[in-house]
Specification:
By secondary structure, this protein is an alpha+beta fold. It contains 19 helices and 19 strands. The structure holds flavin-adenine dinucleotide and FE2/S2 (inorganic) cluster (FES) (2 copies).
């Protein structure tokens, strides 16, 4: 039985189709039409809802964490044990402090006051993103950059973004606003506690195991069932290709898949960790990665998407594979038969094909700490400097898939590259190392001649793909230019700051 909290009621659903989206559930079964459908592919944010989940705060107390999600690409099964909040529920009918005239929630009222809506189609989505941002903003004052990022997954085609951002700035800089959800927090926590974090099997093909053993067994018994991480890729098969998924095994209930921990020599990342959780953890080890992660989709997608899903979907333009390849990461494939560890750069076999067998799942990833910390290099420190650089080139800054993604991990002694490892996305049918390039860079200073040689080496490594995102010629040119950018940033550190602050 699926159970979740909605409008202060525990909802019990026994036989919903495994691939029913939250958006269709709301609009078609519940006649709650405040949540809009724009693109049905996670790109516009019109369908944004907020999902509340019981978590422990830093002091170990239970609290509710609110995160936005695109309901068009979230299956209803993902709501099990959680609270669903939609725009229909925001208006404050009871409980002060409400706007006594209109009952509007503060995240709605600022939109009205700043004339931040014209046709209004995008407005429920913006309101829900503002609501989520209000619930998660850690620091006041909140910068416009922060707001841009929070709203990066919402599109408006008629108002213009300035008044919307002004509205957000007003809302998020007001200090603590107490709303009806804060008033009800005790009851909500109680209700969520009452929904057991149990395994679920709906009888309509939806499985939610809660342990690795259950998961392996289910995958063995149902090798054709679709494994569901965040669904930000899988759900498009339903909403864009109009496929049906007969059975779905959701990873969300398996706590052992969702973690980021450090051992003496590695960072271990559970495959079910969300992109948001991964970003929060990795910024401490590798701040250089943060600008790339900020440009991975929009906030709603990052909240749902998992690290494992970004590898299992084997997209040639996924953003994490080039990074993990350059950082010399490994991954663990596991099933009821046992487990095996492989290097990420060996995991991708050919277009959309990986080493993953039908009964296997990706369980976790390991990134060597030496990728960030020179003292952990096998050769010891020896005056070596580590440079990690990650570049994403796409048509738009926010919420866009890469045309080219390039990741560089270099060890430098003075100005000389001692060792280089690289990962590229968008340059071949699979995410790949550039081995000829790595060999060319090793032992050299990145001067003009070295860069000329490096560009030639890149042509040996890649014959780029030609598709709607970019031509092969563009990709070749861009990847060559990124080598020049890398050299400029290494030898003139101010260049990096200038380029980042312009968001490219
Ligand atoms: C609007 C939008 C923007 C996007 N922008 C980006 C972007 O900027 N960069 C980028 O790289 N990607 C982007 N994506 C793609 C997608 O969000 C990512 O690939 C994401 O990491 C997929 O993770 P998921 O958990 O949602 O995968 P799911 O959709 O749940 O699964 C994807 C595939 O992997 C399988 N799978 C998932 N987890 C596992 C596992 N642990 N073991 C085995 N198989 C598994 C599933 O069965 C499925 O075949 C975007 C998607 C959308 C909709
Ligand atoms: S309808 Fe566009 S993101 Fe969901
Ligand atoms: S107000 Fe019309 S799309 Fe935003």
């Amino acid at each position: 039985m699926l159970q979740f909290l909605h409008q202060n009621q525990i909802i019990n659903e026994a036989r919903l189709p495994a691939d029913l989206t939250v958006l269709d559930y709301l609009r078609e079964s519940q006649s709650l039409c405040g949540t809009k459908e724009g693109c049905a592919s996670g790109d516009c944010g019109a369908c944004t809802v907020v999902i509340g989940e019981l978590v422990q705060d830093a002091e170990g107390n239970e609290t509710i964490r609110y995160r936005s999600a695109n309901s068009c690409i979230t299956f209803v099964g993902a709501l099990h044990g959680k609270q669903l909040i939609t725009v229909d529920e925001l208006t404050q009918k009871t409980n002060p402090p409400s706007d006594t005239v209109t009952g509007l929630h503060p995240s709605q009222r600022v939109i009205v006051e700043h004339h931040a809506s014209q046709c209004g189609f995008c407005t429920p989505g913006f309101v829900m993103s503002l609501f989520a941002a209000m619930k998660t903003a850690k620091d006041v004052p909140v910068s416009r950059e922060y707001i841009n990022e929070q709203l990066g997954g919402n599109l408006c085609r008629c108002t213009g973004y300035r008044p919307i951002i002004d509205a957000a700035e007003k809302l998020l800089n007001c200090g603590d606003i107490v709303d009806q959800f804060d008033h009800n927090a005790g009851d909500t926590i109680q209700a969520l506690r009452g929904i057991a974090d149990n395994s679920v099997e709906t009888g309509s093909g939806f499985f939610r195991p809660v342990s690795l053993d259950q998961l392996y067994l289910l995958k063995q018994q149902h090798p054709d069932a679709a494994v569901l991480g965040g669904g930000t890729d899988l759900a498009l098969r339903v909403t864009q290709q109009l496929d049906s998924l007969e059975s779905v095994i959701m990873l969300d209930g398996v706590a052992a898949l969702s973690f980021v921990t450090q051992t003496s020599d590695e960072i271990r990342i559970g495959a079910g960790t969300s992109l948001t959780g991964f970003r929060d953890a990795l910024v401490h080890y590798c701040p250089e990665l943060d600008p790339l992660l900020a440009r991975f989709a929009g906030t709603q997608v990052r909240n749902q998407a998992t690290v494992g899903g970004n590898f299992a979907n084997a997209s040639p333009v996924g953003d994490l594979p080039p990074v993990f390849i350059a950082l010399n990461a490994s991954l663990v494939l596991a099933s009821a038969r046992g487990e095996r560890t492989v290097k990420v750069h060996e995991f991708f076999v050919s277009y959309k094909e990986t080493l993953l067998q039908p009964d296997e799942i990706i369980r976790e990833f390991m990134i060597p700490l030496a990728a960030f910390d020179v003292s952990l290099l096998p050769s010891g420190d020896n005056g070596i400097r580590i440079v990690n650089r990650f570049y994403k080139v796409s048509k738009r800054i926010d919420d866009d898939i890469s045309a080219v993604c390039a990741a560089f991990h270099l060890q430098l002694s003075g100005n000389t590259v001692v060792a280089a490892s690289t990962g590229f996305g968008g340059m071949a049918a699979i995410p790949k190392r550039a081995q000829a390039l790595e060999a060319t860079l090793a032992g050299r200073v990145l001067d003009e001649q070295c860069l000329l040689d490096a560009v030639v080496a890149l042509t040996r490594d890649f014959q780029p793909i030609d598709d709607v995102r970019a031509t092969a010629e563009y990709r070749s040119k861009v990847s060559a230019n990124l080598l020049h950018r890398l050299a400029a940033e290494i030898y003139t550190p101010d260049v990096a700051t200038t380029v980042e602050s312009h968001g490219h």
